[in-house]
Task: inverse folding
């Protein structure tokens, strides 16, 4: 597999570059395939690739988390600027039926 | 219960943690056995004195042991000169072997999507991705080994009425140093959010108070407290958090005093050869594994136990972590 092809394949979901299956296969095995495998049949390079793939998943997860946190922060800032803030409670609840019924 | 009791209880010859003079009197204690006693005397009787264990190892227990085992192997590899990458490979290899069912020739089958082979390997890799340059430095023993998975057993300042010595011990995950101060580090895995309320459960807490007692009295170290090193394990992620859990010397003194009362209580049960049910504790911690047994008529329980459980001795005197 060429370097470009391997990178393309990894980007599409979890193959590894440059690792041959000890079972004789030509293609490197996916994380799912390695997880279903007996440890005795895995090479050191494959253990390292398990770590690399999981680390990559962590980076993706972390950047998603950061995105969510940024969105939440933006929401809070918008509220404190007054755009979405509810009127201050006076301790009683008053419902304007005209507003509700249009 | 007495005929049934004699049949089921381990003898002192089988389990060295038990008294040779009074059947069912435990002399060597740890947080697990003390915790079972505090929760329900009947549960303690079944689990600790008789050794009845569910046939299938509890998923949470297996997962927790796997995480501990992997980190222990990582620490040993680092202490032996391996770099981060090599040590991580050792840990991952061990986890994958641990989660391989040799008999069935397949990976460990777990019924929990959060806790299985993949999530355990992921938790180990993500943990070391986060803590590759850990601010908590693992202390070294005089023999050069890292201070991880330390088994310790201390004589208590009181004896059983039989005159036999009472002991308390445990297995500490790690003793580490942070900002020139010593801490016991205890690893936890959970499905729960690592919020303030998660960490609040450890104060007061039987296990952590006991560990701080063991760390201060056993190692002669000025232990500043315990660091709960927690991993939240989800289906698609593992998240980590740490919090300092402290106890004042007075609190530890109180815990040791309470311990004396609990052990006296255990002695009372042994003398009576009767361990009553605490039927208000059947549903705590996700439900007692013996609830199904206690729900049966007393005369039929032994048969039900033999069917659904297997015998596995619990002996706090057997040390762990000797790798």
Result:
């Amino acid at each position: 597999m060429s370097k470009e092809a391997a990178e393309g394949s990894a980007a599409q979901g979890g193959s590894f570059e440059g690792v041959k299956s000890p079972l004789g296969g030509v293609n490197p095995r996916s994380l799912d395939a390695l997880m279903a495998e007996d440890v005795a049949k895995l090479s050191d390079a494959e253990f390292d690739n398990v770590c690399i793939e999981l680390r990559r998943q962590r980076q993706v997860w972390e950047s998603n988390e950061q995105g969510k946190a940024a969105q939440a922060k933006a929401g809070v800032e918008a509220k404190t600027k007054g755009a979405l803030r509810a009127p201050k409670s006076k301790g009683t609840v008053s419902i304007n039926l005209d507003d509700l019924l249009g | 219960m007495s005929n049934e009791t004699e049949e089921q209880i381990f003898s002192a010859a089988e389990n060295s943690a038990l008294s040779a003079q009074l059947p069912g009197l435990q002399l060597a204690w740890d947080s697990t056995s003390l915790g079972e006693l505090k929760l329900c005397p009947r549960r303690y009787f079944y689990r600790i004195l008789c050794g009845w264990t569910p046939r299938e190892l509890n998923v949470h227990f297996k997962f927790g042991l796997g995480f501990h085992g992997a980190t222990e192997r990582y620490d040993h590899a680092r202490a032996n000169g391996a770099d981060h990458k090599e040590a991580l490979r050792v840990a991952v290899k061990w986890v994958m072997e641990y989660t391989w069912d040799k008999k069935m020739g397949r990976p460990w089958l777990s019924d929990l999507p959060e806790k299985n082979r993949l999530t355990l390997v992921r938790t180990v890799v993500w943990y070391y991705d986060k803590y590759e340059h850990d601010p908590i430095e693992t202390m070294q023993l005089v023999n050069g080994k890292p201070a991880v998975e330390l088994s310790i057993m201390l004589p208590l300042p009181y004896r059983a009425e039989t005159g036999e010595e009472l002991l308390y011990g445990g297995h500490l995950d790690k003793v580490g140093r942070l900002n020139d101060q010593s801490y016991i580090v205890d690893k936890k895995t959970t499905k729960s959010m690592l919020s303030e309320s998660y960490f609040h459960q450890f104060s007061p807490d039987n296990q952590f108070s006991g560990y701080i007692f063991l760390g201060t009295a056993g190692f002669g170290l000025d232990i500043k407290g315990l660091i709960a090193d927690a991993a939240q394990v989800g289906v698609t992620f593992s998240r980590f958090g740490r919090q300092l859990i402290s106890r004042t010397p007075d609190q530890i003194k109180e815990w040791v005093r309470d311990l004396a009362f609990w052990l006296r209580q255990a002695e009372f049960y042994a003398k009576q050869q009767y361990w009553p049910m605490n039927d208000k504790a059947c549903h705590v911690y996700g439900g007692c594994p013996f609830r199904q047994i206690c729900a049966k008529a007393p005369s039929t329980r032994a048969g039900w136990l033999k069917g659904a459980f297997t015998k596995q001795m619990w002996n706090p005197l057997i040390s762990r972590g000797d790798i």
Q: What stands out?
A: The longest helix of chain A spans residues 44-80.
